[in-house]
Amino acid sequence: MISRFGLRSALAETAGARGLLLYGILVLAAVPAAAQMPEPLATVLHLTQTAERKVVRDLLRVELRAEATGADPLALQAAVNRRMASALDRARQVQGVEVETGNYEVNEELPQNAAPRWRASQSLILTGRAADAELKLAGVLQSEGLLMSSISYQVSPETVRGAEEDLTAEALAGLAQRASSVAERVHLSVLRYRDLRVGNAETDGQPIPRFAAVAMAAPVAEPGEAVVRVTVSADLLLGPPKHP
Predict the structure, then answer these.
(1) How do residues 60-73 score in pLDDT, each as one tens digit?
(2) Where does 43-56+158-239 sit in CATH, by number?
């Protein structure tokens, strides 16, 4: 037979054990929740940094066209075909110049106060880094009857890729320095990067074609410079300075 005192002791021990068990469950449940909570004292800093460099446009693009007008569209196409075949044969003999054909068009024109006529044309595109040879070839093709459509210098993909790594390193270094400076001014320190975005190298818009095209002579062109740039951006967490 359990005495009244013993019964009280047993009930007290049971209640104590249940209390400890409940406390342990609450503590264990709170651990992952606390681990998932954002840093309460962190300040988010959004930064963007760009590094850029001027480079010489080193890829020349020349577009010419074989063109003929008249009343017979079939005859015009035959004339354009002959002229383009001759131009392709000559262009393929020049080293360092890539050759391709562009649009081929045959259109009927209806001018006012004049008889209808047809116009046939096909473009020839030359690209390469051997600018002198390419310009000389363009002059020869002009003398053989092709018309100049455009000349423009661009930055070659190799030059862009060559500048990309250095510009990326420069932009990241600038971002880190700027983040430290901002944090110091607001009496905080950089804890870590929360998000980082690094863009690819880009160049400015296409240059305006610049050339002096004279029949029977090679056209003259000046490449000029283009800007290659890399932009990086990041979200950084700032917190109280770390004391030694």
Answers:
(1) 999 999 999 999 99
(2) 3.30.110.170
